[in-house]
Structures are given as structure tokens and as C-alpha cells.
Amino acid sequence: MHGGIFEGKYSYAQLKGTGTSLSPIATSLGIKEYDDLKFIDQGQLIQFIDLSSFSTNVIPTLQELKYLGYTRIMDSEEDDKEEHCVAVGNRLPKPGSNSTVYLISLENKYNGDTLDTAEKIFPVLQKWTFHTNDDQLYSIQLNLEKIKAIPKYNELHIADDVINDTAIYETKEDFEKFLEEKNVSAEVMKKCFPYASSPAAVSMM
């Protein structure tokens, strides 16, 4: 469990239940008809994600969903019909960090415009991880005026190789490492990272 997200897997037998009745697990995943099980490989585990305890409403409404995905059927050179699908996320990833995308099934999950149930358990169709670069560049020179405006700046005794550093750092981590190696004070760090209140909090965005 992390951040209210739980991943797991169900077997075909757990979905099937007994006789011709679906198990509660299957219905919680949005499988409403027993005949739908014929499309599921009996030898493959069904991966799911549980968002029931997630504090943020990350699932779009049905109205919002109309703008976040579409499917087109296109003719190929062999006169076959090809389906091309596009799904668009409704949130931006955090810059300078890794993010995981979950492509989930929302079939049979809506009652009107909102989710049909508070039990937000969804089949995972695919998932992948990607890294987002931090568009911001970090530099002592970019912050030099703010640093020199610190009261009693001369009493901070900042080393010349820090003040004269002209390097441009592409990631926050590299810039933090440079400042820590040079034993830069918390007061100077606050000028480089406005949201940080102490050296231990420099990594906050």
C-alpha cells in the first residue's frame, strides 16, 4: 500500500465464482455478464488496482472522459479495419521525477455521470513508468542578486568558488549536491530554493 494505491492480481477461478454466478470480485471489477469471462484467458492473472482509499478523486466523470479518449477505425492497405485509440491524462506529472501510468478499464463503472460504486477497484490493461525532465535550470549566478541581498551577506563567508560558479545544473538533485558539498548555509539555500526552509527540506518542490 502506498499513497492509497494497492495493486494485486486475481485468477480466473476467483472471477468465475460458483455455478453460473459471477463472484463479487468480478462484479467489483466491472464484469457484469457471465459470458464476458470467455474473453479472459483462464491461464492469465487479472491485475487490478484499488483506489478506494485514495484521497484525491483521480477518476474523471463520464462527461470529462469524452474529452480524454477516442477510437478511430481506419482502413489499411489490406482493406482491413484497424482500431487506433488515444487516451489523454487529466493531470501533469511532477517535473524531475518518475511517474507510473495505469491504463484501466472503466467499463460498467458509471451510473449517470459519476462512478457507480465507492469500491474503486479496476482492471489494469497496461502500465508503464516514465521520467519527466525538470524544465527549470539551477545556477548560483541565477540567484546571485538574491544571495547578495541577504542581511549581513559578508558575514556568511561564502567561498569564492561558490559565488563564482558559472555552471548550469539541469536537475535539482545535482544542484543540491553541489551546494551540500560546498557547505552552503541554510540561509543561502533558501534563496536558491524559495520553498525550502532548511537544508533537509531543499528537495521539496
Q: How would you portray this structure in words?
A:
By secondary structure, the chain is of the alpha+beta class. The chain folds into 2 domains: 6-58 and 96-132, no CATH class; 141-201, no CATH class. Helix content is 20%, strand content 23%. The protein contains 7 helices and 8 strands. The strands form 3 sheets. It has a 4-stranded antiparallel β-sheet with strand order 1-2-8-5. β6 (110-111) and β7 (114-115) form a beta hairpin. The longest helix has 10 residues, at 172-181.
Poorly predicted residue ranges: 195-205
Average residue-wise pLDDT:
81
Using only C-alpha atoms, the radius of gyration works out to: 26 Å
Alpha plus pi helix count = 7
Return the string of H and E elements.
EHHEHEEEEEEHHHH
Tally of DSSP β-strands: 8
Strand line-up in the sheet with most strands:
1-2-8-5
Strand content: 15-25%
Broad shape: elongated
How far is the N terminus from the C terminus? 24 Å
Helix coverage percent of residues?
10-25%
Give a quick account of the main beta sheet: strands, pairing sense, barrel closure.
4 strands, antiparallel
Domain module count: 2
